[in-house]
Design goal:
- The protein is of the alpha/beta class.
- 37% of the residues lie in helices and 26% in strands.
- The chain has 11 helices and 13 strands.
- The chain has helices at 44-52, 70-76, 95-106, 112-121, 136-148, 166-183, 194-200, 218-225, 236-245, 269-278, 293-303; strands spanning 4-15, 18-29, 33-37, 59-64, 80-83, 154-158, 186-190, 203-208, 211-217, 228-233, 252-254, 260-262, 283-289.
- A 6-stranded mixed sheet has the order 5-6-7-3-8-9, sandwiched between helices.
- Strand 11 and strand 12 form a beta hairpin.
- Helix 3 packs across helix 4 and helix 4 (112-121) packs across helix 5 (136-148).
- The longest helix is centred in the middle third of the chain and has 18 residues, at 166-183.
Length: 307
């Protein structure tokens, strides 16, 4: 069983009469890339700020690396790197100097750590440039470099690919994958680009109106979102016999209403329909179905819209 890097129990936060986080229970295990999904205002950034100590909880507990005592948690936060909302930067200082200030504030020895993170995020050649002359995407990369300085074990990244061009998004994805696979860095990441999260996250938390409505692994998501041919016939038993005997597959599922989910021949619905018809099954409906992450998220939010 993996150790939990982060665990919250009934974590809540209110601003006056508005509850922005409502009894959130979340677990992120060592080695996870945890995709945090929710609409604007759902509570993603609030949770990240609570974990990183930028704001104070109203109730509930936060456990980091197995510690939940207030004093010990502060020490555990030294093992984290964070990029939350827009990074705080000194516009008239250079990229390098911004990182140097950040290094000193964190108490990290050795200037060589600066060159290391600059090369990791692809900003080494821009190190002497004033921050005010950087593009939005470059500023985002600088914020990521600040989060990476000091070799953190746990990264909290709030919309880290916001403002990046497609090539930069690919570079950051590769970097995060490398940090996770080669250095066992655990990552909590939010993004509005769900198709990007789908490519490398191995678990997900979905938040809506301040409540965590689901935690799901990538394997569970694949099972729920798996593509299939949805088939309705006049005789499911005869259709199944044909699928096994003629199409030579048992990769199907018969639903309670006798509809059939066929997980092969996804690009050949006409062939499947023809085979069934030629072997005595009248096909009432055949269609390619299955959700992607965006579809799954939208349906989950819709089901919970009045919760």
């Amino acid at each position: 069983m993996k150790d939990a890097v982060l665990k919250t129990v009934n974590l809540s936060k209110r601003y006056k009469d508005v509850t922005v986080l409502d009894n959130v229970n979340i677990t992120i295990n060592k080695g996870d890339i945890y995709g945090f999904i929710g609409q604007n205002g759902a509570g993603k950034t609030t949770l990240m700020k609570l974990i990183s100590g930028l704001i104070i909880k109203d109730s509930g507990t936060i456990e980091l690396f197995g510690e939940n005592d207030t004093r010990n948690i502060e020490n555990m936060r030294k093992r984290m790197g964070c990029l939350i909302e827009t990074p705080a930067l000194y516009d008239y200082s250079s990229v390098y100097d911004n990182l140097e200030i950040n290094r000193i504030q964190k108490g990290i020895p050795g200037r060589e750590s600066i060159d290391k993170v600059l090369k990791m995020v692809g900003l080494y050649n821009e190190r002497k440039k004033q921050v005010r002359k950087l593009s939005m995407g470059m500023k985002q990369k600088l914020g990521l470099a600040m989060a990476l300085i000091g070799d953190p074990e746990f990264l909290i990244l709030d919309e880290p690919i916001n403002g990046l061009d497609p090539m930069s998004i690919i570079e950051i994805r590769k970097l995060l994958n490398k940090l996770n696979k080669e250095f066992d860095v655990t990552i909590l990441i939010s993004s509005h680009i769900l198709s990007e999260l789908y490519q490398f996250a191995n678990s997900y938390g979905i938040i809506h109106n301040g409540r965590l409505v689901e935690q799901i692994t990538s394997r569970e998501l694949e099972e729920r979102c798996q593509k299939f041919l949805y088939i309705r016939t006049d005789n499911a038993e005869r259709a199944v016999f044909t699928i096994e005997r003629i199409l030579k597959t048992q990769n199907y599922e018969v639903m309670h209403d006798n509809a059939i989910k066929l997980y092969e021949y996804l690009d050949e619905p006409s062939k499947v329909a023809s085979v069934l018809l030629n072997n005595g099954s009248l096909v009432d409906e055949i269609a390619l179905k299955g959700d992607n992450l965006e579809d799954y998220f939208s349906k989950l939010v819709w089901r919970n819209k009045n919760v």
